[in-house]
Amino acid sequence: MEKLRYERPIIKKLNVGFVNKFGTQAKNEVVTNLEGVGVKELIKEFGSPLFVISEKQIRRNYQHASRVFKTRYPKVQFAWSYKTNYLNAVCKVFHQEGSWAEVVSGFEYEKALANGVPGSKIIFNGPDKTDDQLVTAARNNSLIHIDHFDELYSLIKLSEEFQLKPKVAIRVNMDTGIYPRWDRFGFNYENGQAWTAISRIMSCEHLNLVGLHCHIGTFMMESSAYAIAATKLCQLSWDISEKFGRHIQYLDLGGGFPSTNTLKGSYLPGTDTVPGIDQFADAITDVILGFGFRQEELPLLILETGRALIDDAGYLLGTVLANKRLSDGRSSTVMDFGVNSLFTSFWYDHKVTPAQEGGQYTEETVLYGPLCMNIDVIRENVVLPLLKKGDHLVVHKVGAYNMTQWMQFITLRPNIVLLDQSSHPHLIRKAETLEYLESVEIVPHHLSKNS
Amino acid sequence: MRFKKNIATSDTGFIFNPGSGDSFSSNSIGSEILAFFKEDKSRNEIIELICAKYDVEKNQLEKDLDDFFSQLRDHNLLDE
Ligand SMILES: Cc1ncc(COP(=O)(O)O)c(C=O)c1O
Question: b/e per residue, B57-71, with b = 16+ CB within 10 A?
């Protein structure tokens, strides 16, 4: 006789009169495959844990965002924010779709060049650009977004010294009604600092002011903040035209649109609360179109959207190491990946689904990683079917910031696979090995002998 | 260590403790095990019965049974 499917015995208390804070019976969604490829098979071939990225979903996201903006405004350009996910395979998908590159460090700049982005289509942001990098970027005709006065004066000096005429913009910070205010980057609008920087640039024959930039925050829930930001950039552009007769070619509104993840502490899932990209597009384009520019003088609108274009294209697959009961009776599950790989579990209550059919019975459990640290919590509380050692879970919407902010701590970073448009898996970053790790270590001679 | 005598169980997994007024639900394997308790089956007998019926390794079941006992204890359903 065939034996029945086993599930470990559990009992849970019924709280009569209390509404379960997770709503009624949690939906028992099971995700056994990603775009037709079995989770089990992927893990078998590429190991666990495993990051999986969907090329199809990236392209879908990009094309959607692009359509939303281009149906509202005639001149739109996206620039892929490298820090969000700078795996070359990922960047190349964005570049194929037409994205420029937005970088914030020397190595990101070099990566963009190596990925075939022409210098003139690289936006160089951030407070940290060395003199050498500034000169290189100027020679490559890149768009240098100046962050502070020290950088402005360095660039003036270098441009005179090397007879360069770099294309520049300034990053502007401002009050958009959103807190915290990101006023540590760029020049402030309200106190006149931005205008001082603009005047200084206009008085320097070596610098070519072509744009204005802002990035007002990340995971912004208010589209109205973008309307305020757009208004202030339009005003600066207008004033530059009035005062100096200079036409500003582009306004760069930065990134910051939210993905559909659920921020920690929110009561409702992100899918229910997050404004769609069309609302942000409406807010921004209504302002620019209504500001009074002549049709032929409308600035190019640049967007450096990061997480909203990639988060839901990334998955993390993992395996249950153990089930444990905590001292207070709660159930907990230890996974083979922790906050070292899934950095964004500090921000989000990630959606987690089992990768195999389980029983109808569910329990609340704490999801831990394998690190020997108390902070290694993937989910403080999640309702899952009864898992057993060796079962697989899928963590959803992990495409942004994990594969760049992950830490090589206690465990080595795992393989990353890209599912192409016909769902073929391609290894795009190999799991780290001890050898890889130690290839950059040097043991001084006097310590080299093993005792 | 025994299951409290006065506790009512049903086949559907509903459990009621008249002493405290608390009610509980268990999955079907849990209620099967509770029924065995009530019949005063020993731990070894229970393990044998469950292993014969379900697709589970003995050592896995032993571990899960220990955990089940600790849940019952936490919920005050055992006479120590
Ligand atoms: C200057 C700049 N542009 C774009 C981005 C991308 O932001 P997001 O992922 O919120 O769209 C960032 C992220 O911090 C940034 O600092």
Answer: eeeebebbbebbbeb
